[in-house]
Amino acid sequence: MRRVCVIGAGITKFVRRAKETGKELSFEAARMALDSAGMDIKDIQCVAEGTAPDAFDGMHMKAEYLSDGSGAYGKPYTRSYVGGGTGVFTGVHGWWHVASGMFDTCLVIGEEKMSSCHPHPQGAFVTIFDNFTERQLGPNLVWIFALEMNRYMTTHKIKKEDVALVSVKNHGNALDHPSAQLGMKITVEDVLKSEVLAYPVQRLDISPTSDGAAAVIYCTEEIARRYTDNPVFVDGVGWHLDTAYWTDRDLYYPRYVEKAAKMAYKMAKIDNPRKQISFAEPYDPFDYKELHHMEGLQLCGKGEAPILTREGVTQRDGDLPTCPSGGALGVGNPIAATGVMKLCEMFWQLRGEAGKRQVKNDPHTAVAQAWGDLMQVGTVVVMRRGGEHP
Amino acid sequence: MGKVAIIGVGQTVLKPFSPEVSYKEMIFEAAVKAYEDAGVEPRRDVESFIGVSEDFWEGTSIFDEYLPDQVGGALRPVCTIGNEGLAGIASAAMQIMTGQIGVAAIESHSKFSEVDRPLKVMQMAFDPILNRPLDFNPHLVAGLEMARFLDGSGAKRNDCARVVAKNRRNAIANPYAAYPARVTSELVLRSGETFAPLRKLEMSAPADGATVVVLASEERARKLSDNPVWIDGMGWANDTPTLEARDWARARYAEWSVKQAVRMAGWAAKKADLFEIDDTYAYKEIQHAAALGICKPADYAKFITGGNPPINASGGSLGCGHVLDATGIFRLGEAVEQLRGQAGRRQVRGAKRAVVQSWRGVPTTAGAVLMLSNNDGSPAPAGKGAVA
Lengths: 390, 388
Hints:
The structure holds two protein chains of two kinds. Chain A has 14 helices and eleven strands. Chain A is an alpha/beta fold. Chain A has a nine-stranded mixed beta sheet. In chain A, strands 5-6 form a two-stranded antiparallel ribbon. The longest helix of chain A has 16 residues, at 22-37.
């Protein structure tokens, strides 16, 4: 198997309502990624696209529509798709294009334009539920994640104050991200006083809806050497999807994330993630999800993530920074683009190019993860910088 | 780069309507047949599951949610590839070529009969700013393209009618086909001009059905299968999505796809013993045959009557029914049966190589090509019978 390198990254600003079309957002992210790698679109052999529900844009076969904006004209091009897990999965999808030996270079791109959905994209989510048993109840994501958050907090006796610390951290981290939609300095008090949407979920527990795109460039080691002395390596990928019958599962723990993480760690030869991973970009569309996912990613024991957060371990200057980018909560959450934003963040951090966001522990290995569907899918990518690692 | 084999195919009989089964039951039937054919236990042996689907056809957003249970994929690596089915096959093949996955299953289906307003769904694929406000019937694009194709390519209207007569007749021998019939080209030319010059009988009719295919690495295939069919080459490509900017005369996506596939396979597409190529509309078969280098449009009639390798022995989409993004995978099933010598009355004697080509339909320019063979030049596995 060929080792896959990352040599460029690009991102648009994440905003509530972009004037640009989805094609234009894709173009902007792809252009920036190519420029940062020192490549032109003619150097790209194939394109791996990630974009989540067509219902947001009302575009049937959305990837076909986006194809020219994503640089796919005249190229092999496919879209992969696992709901909210799509973004990081696009990093897996691109990986197999290069690791298989079929292609030497691949543009990996994630795009989402949620604002086209009126009056609010949350309305589109009713269509993700089972058309016989659930849809008639008119459910939405805030409801079902409220169930999951409640279950997680109840099982481990977690206080809302501890969960809110994630929101405070990620919104604060995002202040240093030039693409961020919601960088802001807030307090635990602010989170606890924000509007209750579906208890225990409050307004500041949730990431915003966003428009945006992000891209990374994958290539072989041989090609990478022509462009940079400092490539980052995709050393592990994993993905698992659980049963559609989410009502039959115990929601306190994301076992699908555990399986996906173990798949990626095995490939990356990581046997002690707590020691061997420098920082993590777990998916944080809700603040409790970062905690939930840290546990699924085996970065701490079940119920321990709130303790690490309270102790400051997950701050940028801590031992295990999480979401140094600002995450979905702070940078914004244009679903598929969010996951690719996390891949971009690993690339910049591992190259020491994250500027004010740079983590302080001289990072060598990082993991990004996304999650989605009916609390059902985990997608994981592990990246490393060059050289020897513990 | 490791070789990849097809070791199992399962499909349901295509039908215009299928009120007796849900999509899950339909997929389950295809999956059970495919795993039985491959001799694999999905919960133990299959390491990756790929569904090829589009949300709007399903009427469900994030449709991958509803795939795992009926294919044995719950709490396993599962994903959706949003493209034509053959691109899903290519993704699974690449997963296997990385060495990380040994056996993969690919699923695609159509439950078209349950789509309330299919033309509205198709309209949602048009550019929302430039095209959709014109509110035209999506098949109009095919009519325009056919007009451009007939102008100067050398293809004749009568040739398009012959495609219909041939394919629907071929389908009579195909137990999976939904629309077998004895239709003469005269009758086709007498059918109504729906989107001039396109006639009613020159448009394939939709059908319901599911197909599951099992792929394996060379190592696993040799252990599991007596009659593996090898993927020698694969290619897929997109032309521009913009109606106003594309080359209407040629199927460039097919030209690019076959170029990639031939480079990998090392044999020319026209060396195949049979061709399963897209015939969503009758003229498309002639256009795609030209793009693949099988025969020039002007020579099409001579080619199909001249004792050459058959084009669409299955009956094609015109004879079997169009099953949305499952179309390419369904036709791959035909090629596999042929290369295993299991195609019954349709059997092409001594078939060793096949080319399968697909297109995503209006208004896309996405296409894919697979080049297959049943002979990798190596001896049959020890203790097992000779390759059929």
